[in-house]
Task: structure prediction
Amino acid sequence: MFPTSLLVVLFAVVLVLSNAIRILKEYERAVVFRLGRVIAVKGPGLILLIPIVDRMVKVDLRTITLDVPPQDIITRDNVSMKVNAVVYFRVVDAVKAIIAVERFLYATTSWPRGRRSTSGSRRFWTTRPRPGASRSRACR
Result:
């Protein structure tokens, strides 16, 4: 029916097209590299790439929630506290997220754990007088 060479060519064309077409969801962006250089940020929908020449990195633009494990800290006045935190973040610029940081998701998730040493040196709250109220000795 079909010659063998035609089937091989047809199979190669289907293989190339399957590698060239990508579909992105509404909340995803693609940073496209052509021979190692950024050429564009492509939006949601159908993306066409040149096989072997183009590489695509997907970036999720949704807000990501990160639960920071509870930490025990000691304040400057030697009071023990247990601090719980949640970090919300999202990618605003896809190119900067991919190029400026090697692994932006790992860098963001490891940052709150590294803040433990500086927690005691920061003031969590300050006592300020209400507007129009006279200052007492405790607030000075």
